[in-house]
Every structure is written in structure tokens, then in C-alpha cells.
Amino acid sequence: MAAVVPVWARALLLVDRAVLSTVRLAALVRTELLLAGLSTSEREAVNAAVFSAEDTYAPGGPAFAQGLFAWERETLATAPFPAAGRVLLGGAGGGRELAGLCALGYDVVAFEPAPALSDALATVAAQHPGARALRGAYADLVLAVGGGGGPLAALVGERYDGVVLGWASLSHLTDAGERAELFAALRALAPTAPVLLSYLGPDDDGRANGRVERLRAPLRRGLARVLRSAPAAEGAGFVPGAGFYQRFTAAEIEALATAAGYDVALHEREPYPHALLRPRA
Length: 281
Description:
The protein is an alpha/beta fold.
């Protein structure tokens, strides 16, 4: 005779599902309110504060301790990325990639906007001859390349043999215009340098696909009407420990590269979404 689930167990499971749905709903509402209510610059300020509070990316943290990931090492060893030379490293965090690139023999010029991580990055750079660290964001790079000076003005006029956009840092640019400006700036600053980038793919934020998730689109449209703002882009989101982010499809990454004058030399979704771009002649 088949066993029967006791009434108390069924009730407990129902309560558990109700609590989980409530938590998911609260997270969805929080995310959509933040996306609708904050400007691009305010989102970037939140991200800087979030990452400054995270010690996992600084020396001594578990992410830093991993060094370069296998997919990063393999891509760095893939043409057209140069085997030696000076590398510009943006969104460099606490120095994980800087230390790894220096160990491979590259000279590295790196920058990072989050204050605590930027301080850690400077400490790591000081341990490696040929490495230099600055505090600044991708928007500061665009400003510098455009002749506006700013904290990254010293990067202009130097030669770069390769460019690395730090681990998923591209996904923290939630404005399409800013992404286009960044790639145009890279093309102008380092016209012959290949670019290694990584990003959050469509399924990388762990969203549920149930009834709660179906509320996202109407809530997003409703908030845009109430606040008289443009709705957040498809794929935009927020996580307390990682700030605001933008998920991309492979096609969106390739379109961004093509529009900026790059060809896609390599593009992989596993084990982590990443691409290697070659400047078009």
C-alpha cells in the first residue's frame, strides 16, 4: 500500500512554498523599483559601494585566490591576443587578473572604480614591476579618450597591445549608449589591440521562471508609466551582493562588437560567457 503524506507535512510544504514565493516577489519588486528610480550614474554609485563592501575580490578573498580562470588562460593564449606586451585592464577589481597577467609576463595598466577594490588593486600593482593601477570607471575612460581629462587622462597617448575587460565588468554597464561609447573609446585608444571580455548570459542570474517571474514585465511597464521614464532594458537586474547588471545574448555581444569595428575571433558560452575581439582593418 502506497504511503500517504501526513497532513502536517503537506501543510508545512505549502507554507514553505508561500514563503519562497513571497521572498521572490519582494526581490522582484525591490529590483524593479531600483531600476526605475535610479539614473545610470546613481546605479554606478551603488555598484561601487556594493563592490567596496565585498572582500572576496581582494587579496585574501576566495575569488582572488583562484587566480586566472582556465578559460581566461586559454583565451589569452589564443591568437590574436598577443603573447607579450602592454595590456590595458579595465574593471580590474582587487587585482586578481592583474596578478595573473603579470605572472604571464605582461606589463599591465589597470583601473577600477570601487574605492576599496581600487586600493587593493594599487597594493597588488605595487608588488609587480611594470604594473600600474588607477582609480576610475569605464565612463572616465570615455571622458579621457574624448579629451575631457579626468582620473584616467594618463592612459591616453600610450600604446596597448591587448585589452582585457575584467571579469563580467561589461555586464555592469546597464546603459546601451555607455557600452557603445566604451567600445568606441577602446577602438580609438588602442586601435590595433584585441579585446578579451566576459559577461553574464541570459540564464546567469538565477531568476525563477514561475508565476512570480511573470509579474516582472507588467511591473516594469507600470513603473515606467508612473515615473515617466523609459522601462529598464530586457535582461537588466539587481543583486544585493553584485549590484546592477545587464545580461546579454551572444547575438547582442556580437552586434556590439561589430558596430564598434571589431570581428569576433572567439566566442564561447561555456564554462563562462566570453569573447575575444579582433579590430577590423
